[in-house]
User: Fold these one by one.
Assistant:
Number 1:
Amino acid sequence: MKAWRRFLLAVMLCAALSVTAAAASDDQGWPRVFQKDGKELTVYQPQVDFWQDYKVLHARFAIAVKTGAKKEEKYGVVETEAQTVVDQDARTVALIPKSRELRFPNTSDSEAAALKAVADELYPPGQALVVSLDRILAYLDPEKQPQQPPVELNYDPPRIFFSDEPAILVMFMGEPQLKPVAKDMPALMFAVNTNWDVFYDTTSQRYFLLDGDAWLTTGDLAQGAWTATSELPEGLTKLPADENWADVRAQVPGKTYQNPPRVFVSTEPAELVLTQGEPAFSPIPGTKLMRVANTDSDLFLSTPGNVYYLLVAGRWFRATSLDAAWTPASADLPADFALIPDSDPAAHVKSSVPGTVEAQDAILLASIPRATEVAVDQAPQSAAVYDGEPKFATIPSTTVQYAVNSPQQVFLVDGGYYWCSQGTWLTSSSPSGPWTFCTTVPAAIYSIPPSHPSHNVTYVTVQSSTPSTVVYTQTAGYSGEYVAATGVLMFGAGILVGALIADNWNDDHHYYYPPYPVPYSYGCGARYSYAYGGYYRGAAAYGPYGGAGAAARYNPATGTYSRGAYAYGPGGSVSARQAYNPYTGARGGALRVDTDYGSAGRGAAYNPSTGTAVRGGYRSNDQGTVGGIKTNRGTGAVGWDTENSQGAVVKGRGDNVYAGKDGTVYKRDDSGEWSSNSGSGWDSVDKPERASMSSQSAGESAGAKNRPAVSTTQTSQTKAASGQATKARPAQTAQTTQARPTQTASKPQPSATTRVAPRESTRSLESQASARQRGNQLTHQVGTQRQAGGAGRVQRR
């Protein structure tokens, strides 16, 4: 379906706006300077007033204009209402002005007209301006933004194994299912419901497990000890000569372990906590917590009572020892977790601590829609596959039936068939097609409860349609990232859904392949990363293909297998090779996503034995280029390419100038003092009503000053857990043709040209400065963490 494409600038071009390729560029910093023929325009960082439904953004920003030979800058305020195009992979937002008003206070009409002419020449009114998504989010009040609603999730712990020596977790989805590798090779069986390469030789009655480039064997899959071996069954030397088995053939006969790992086997959702020797503890300043420093898991010891806390898939569990039974802790987490300093290596866990700004950030980021536009006259080339005749069963408490013997998410509603595929909806009068793009999805589909594995499709909606195109949107819920009643973002619906998936392996319908293409909460060490915008598999011993139930697939139409390395997720086909070898320490996070409407790839690898690191990345769409500039004064600048016309980011110039709502330009110095410029130079203003921010308090409270406070007490969390999930979901906005009630509607906002008459208060200015500082910190944090590489994102199968 080559007609598929990202919903980027093409939609905005229909509005006859002069839009460049700016959306493909990055936000390299502020302020930005535009120069031409001796004229100069400085644009300071935008200040966001509101972002209506993540579509229309109202912002103000200060500018400074130099004309001709005049050395003096004239300051002004630009107020704009802009259509937005979000590139979540690049973490940027292109602001495409719908309206723009320039004001130069205390200037004559003729001078103001001349200044406006220079500004319009250097920065044309219809030109897009690219801003970091994180800078924008720092300004937003979560209560005024559409958000994924909280749903009822399960907080029960999975089976948790612990080892202080090298170990791996081989997790089956239900009882092991063994099938012949090929029809002419009945003696060699392959386990299809695990993401490891597990074979069974009927002649020797032994199991063989490939771990990296070495083999292990046992005679008892459930209880037996695994030993290293180089004596492999003859069938492994005769594997089918296709790419599907290429990586296995390359390891026959393989190497032999000197010290084979311990192997944990589970037929239910499970996690593995692996430390390098006895647990080593590192105290967290300002708290009574100690971080276990020699593990990839998020593991802590709370010294009051010496209780362990473990974070997995956004859920907290506690135990009195690492070998004891674990119990849920998400609803009554100790307050110390919210006090972890931003500089601590464990600071990332605050995204999963109820009541923190980081938890609000995660939900906001998850709620921003991704849009895809398709041409209705291009028939989808995909085909739904069934094991035998299509079979459907009713989803409890709904009128919706779902296909129980297909790896695709196909539904039957009121005699019509609907298939949610790669973030779009297809429809047909037959379960086998032909399929066409759907412009209206039955409301009943959006009643699928979180307890059912197909709940994730309720986060894919039809945003709009014309006779020639359909625009679909999806939020992070489609990838299995749900908002819990505790006010945090969690991965998957939890242990009950995982058990349901496992149980269904044993019924008559699901004979050859995993029954549900949905997120498996456990079995991959799922960890949230704000920098990458979602949940990622942890770098641990969860299998060569990423865990999360990325088992093999069997296509009954062709009689062929597609193993874990070729499972596919919400963005299309995904190839994710070996992510971690716990014995050599070699890691690889390469992940490629291909779809019919674009492709993107990122990769990173590090080998501690050689000390070398390799990182790479590519994108299929147009990208801007950035080149370094040095001046003879020693100040640095980053020049944006002229095609994208984003100006030059001048590092030697402070990003401390603000546009007041009263039309005055303000500046904040390093000591926290404010001055104003109303057209005749800078004048001191009253000191802020609050004490000026210190370097520490500014970083820790910037977001909180711009957002409502959220209690982190046990009482409020418990109350949230018991009550929020039962709230009805609000209705959608009228513009949306989709029936699903998804997100809370934004409150009405003033128009782009509304002016605030009273003089800007220093309290308001401090709030703006706090938001800017926090946005800068988030942007820097995201860039730093992305450059450092990391594990691949958890993908749906």
Note: The first strand starts at residue 5 and ends at 6.
Number 2:
Amino acid sequence: MRAPVSKKRSRKNGTASADGPANAGRRVRVRSRLVVGVAVAGLTVLAAGTPAVVSATRELNDSQRLVTLAEQTQHALTLAHLLGDERDAVVEYAAKGRPGNAKAPVDERTARTDRQIAELRPEADAELAGALGKVKAVRAEAVDGKGTALAAQQAYAGLLAELLAPGDRLAELTPPRAEDALAVTRPMAPLGQAVDQASATRGLLLAALAVPRAEQTPNSAVADELTGAAQRSRVREQAALDDFARAARPAVRQTLAATVTGPEVKAADDQLKRLTERSTLTPAERRATDAAALATTLTARVDRMRSVESTLAGDRATAFTKLRDDDVTRLELMVAGLGVLFLFVIGFSTAVARSLTRPLSVLRRGAERLATPEGSQEPVRFTGRNDEFAEVVRHLNAVRDQTVALHTKVSGLDADRRRLIGRNEALTGGREVLEEELAKLRAGLEEHRRIMSTTSVSLSLRTLGLVERQLAVIEELESKEGDPDRLATLFKLDHLATVMRRHNENLLVLAGQEHGHGQSLPVPLVDVMRAAVSEIERYERVELAAMPSYTQVAGHAADDISHVLAELLENATTFSPPEAKVKVSGWLNDAGDVVLSVVDQGIGVTEDRLASLNTRLSTPDAYDEEPEAEHGLGLGLYVAGRLAARHGVTAELRAGRHGGLEALVVVPEALLPDAPPSSPVHTLATPGAPAFQLPGVIAEANENTLPPRLRPPAAEQAEQAEQPSEPVAADAEPAKVVTLAEAFDADPGEDADADAGEGEPETAPAAGAPGGAAPEQELLARVVAEADADAFTAADPAPADAAGGPETAPGAPVNDEGNTGPAHDAEQSSHRRAADAEDGFVPRQGSHPEPMAEPAPQPVTAKGLPKRTPRSVAAPGIGNPAAARPEPRRVDAEELRRRLGGFYQGAQDGRRVAAEELAQDRGQGHTDQGDTAQEART
């Protein structure tokens, strides 16, 4: 009994719910799917018939090769006949003792053979050409050599075997379907052997009879040897004829029997039977045998056997030609049948598709009229068959009737509409109030964004300082490490730290903060490319191609261009197969600019996405206007765009020729120095470090070393500030303890050489300070801007120390050279100190002693970097007791308490607001996706 069928619609295949939105995905036309179905049906027919066509094509090629080989064998057979006649003449000539007056027949035979060789050589393959090349050597040895006649006969026999070898292979290469060709090919081998042995028998007998009688004894060894060889050839001939009789068809055997007959053939058989009956010839037999008559009869017999062989060779070539023609005909019929079947399937599938698309078109137009606001004025008409489409049309007409009734009902609701208009006006007033609040919230959000940007800059600068110090430590460990495994691990750490440094620089660029390592001298283009490769994670997949020779980049733009290339290389290696290489090349265009290309083998992107990515590169300021859904995606392109716009460099993404993307970077001619120096010298930004040589333009073609990134002075000063000082000697004068009240009266320019690269307040007391110093000595206070600086303290009119400099805040702007430490001149330092005094900035006192005299030159490593020695940095001022501090001035204690209290209250409010915003972000579940080197691809 049949179970009841459950009429339940699947969730995946059912229609959308009544209260849910319709699927808003990419529009796919039914017509397109039907076209795909028709194409699939046609391709299926082609795929089914392709193996048969390929097999027929292969058989046609095989039959064509057989035809070529048969024709070549036919020509070689003629040459073998001529070469056999030459062999017999040469053997007879050698048996006579090679007299000069008997060489005329040999020359005549060799001339015929040479003419045939000249005709056959252009069409000969490698094997046949090798056999033809041996003819002259064999002939020279047999005619002009000192060998015996039997040796000459054996040399010619080997050469004839090589000429007839291709014909023997034809029987093996002939397919079973070629029955006519097999009937001729199989008996050809034994017949050819019989003809060759008959010719050899003739030559040996004539040579035995040609031995001079004056030099003979009754049992001459030479004549007997030739007679024995003739007897063996006669036996092999009879055996080959027996094999031919077994392999050949009756018609072929009858042809041989009818051709090789007659009085001369009978006389030749009688002579052969008499002369080859024994292995020696008696003197009576030699005297009774006429050599000229014997040569005539044997030659007639051999010529008739050769005619039969030539006829069979022609029949074999004809059979192979017929086989080739049959294969061509079969291939043509097969292709024609496949084409007719393909057209039939395409036509039938198209007819079925049209029977579906026409009713669908009627339904679509009717549904569009029904979806208009005023509804369809006329019902949908369908004149097709009474099938599912007609049922759908009836349902659409029912929906149309309901829609018309609803429109009639809505027209009577004007009063309700007026009431709703009044309520809408009230809501409009409330909306204006909300818009004012929204404007205030936006202003607060902008302020919060500014604060977060400043914080990001400060943290990035600190992290950069730590990364630079980490790289210095890793380089020191690398120079001292001897274990290859540990050294490889240190290299990986060095590379990861370099990538971290680039990411922190990305954050500074996105925050609008310039942070570079400007150089005064130009840098070779190859060094810029290598530095870019060294800053990406998958550097081993980058393949550097040809670069413009003797090309350099201006020093102030070299680091930013390297950063742009690093972002593009990171994007290329991230979105391409792991085993694929990323190729980097460069060339000079007609305008004198350098064009750098980065080509990957990824899946590529759509045209819309490519246009969006190029917009990011050309408009880097659009990052601030990016929607939240795009935040975190394509940060690397924004960084590359901002750095490129800074120097007038053009960057663009294009679709690759063979898939993937191609990034083009055009460096303008203005950034390319005209005449590069012969040996450029790169100067480190580290104070006190000596200059060192980097690979220049002269050696850039063969140089593989990558110069390290120059460390900014801020990082170098941060490193020195973090190192512990040496203990103070017992007889040294201890540093003077400065109280908090004294700190506000001190000269702000005396101890303004604090480190600005780290941006972190020190937590340890200065060298020489007692352990019981008050905690107020570690404060770094920024007084509020509203207070009067004159009521607090007066600026010190004394000039600043030439060796000192103001302390830079973590978020302070960076100069054009990328320095954030005390690398400015005296005029800039004095201006900054004056500005700090006006703003109420008071540097901390007691944490830095007085500056010392000019230090001795620092030792450097083999790579040109300053060598760091633990606990070898002495605190400035310890060894210079003459540099005494001025008498501190007094401050108002109440004013100080009030301002510190306000600073503390503001810090507490800031922490509370940050905690609330963080909790709100976590409640919304917003997460940031992506990386600085990732570009979203669709």
Note: Confidence is low (pLDDT under 50) at residues 1-22, 678-856, 861-886, 925-938.
